[in-house]
Design brief:
Strand content: 5-15%
Order of helices and strands: HHEHHEEHH
Helix content: over 70%
CATH topology: Arc Repressor Mutant, subunit A
Number of strands: 3
Oligomer: single chain
Keywords: DNA-binding, Transcription, Transcription regulation
Distance between the termini: 30 Å
Number of helices: 6
CATH architecture: Orthogonal Bundle
Protein name: MarR family winged helix-turn-helix transcriptional regulator
Length: about 140
């Protein structure tokens, strides 16, 4: 019975995620998906980084990170910084346009989630939050192993 419920939970989470992504994509004016937005958020948080560092931190392949970086630079949301002493060392840095796009993405994301959770009572939100926190703790503890 537990396995049947787990598969039902997985399917429900997939439906919820798919709906959130579709709602976000309809509202976000830029041709970016979630992956480039995660890269912009990482650049905003930690500053300029090498693509290889970004790929490792976020969990993307180097090839995927190259494609994401190309797109961000082409759209003007990021720029490449070249080390004067070693031209092979290139870092990616978020631009003002990238900061603005990231702020817009976060605002839209908040709106999408507010709509998602509006059908829950305060008690249900608290229960859901406790469950999510427990799941995150499990993820963090597995990372340490």
């Amino acid at each position: 019975m537990k396995q049947k419920n787990i598969f039902k939970l997985i399917r429900t989470v997939e439906q919820m995620n798919n709906e959130n992504i579709m709602q976000f994509t309809k509202k976000f004016q830029h041709p970016l998906g979630i992956s480039p937005i995660l890269v912009l958020a990482e650049l905003r948080t930690k500053g300029p980084q090498k693509q290889a560092e970004l790929a490792e931190t976020i969990g993307y392949t180097k090839g995927a990170m190259t494609n994401i970086s190309e797109k961000l630079v082409r759209l003007g949301f990021a720029e490449r910084l070249y080390d004067e002493s070693d031209r092979r060392t290139i870092q990616l840095q978020i631009t003002t346009a990238g900061m603005n796009a990231l702020k817009e993405a976060q605002a839209i994301g908040e709106d999408v989630f507010m709509l998602l959770f509006e059908s829950l009572s305060e008690e249900e939100i608290n229960q859901y939050l406790m469950i999510q926190e427990k799941i995150v703790q499990g993820i963090e503890s597995r990372k340490k192993k």
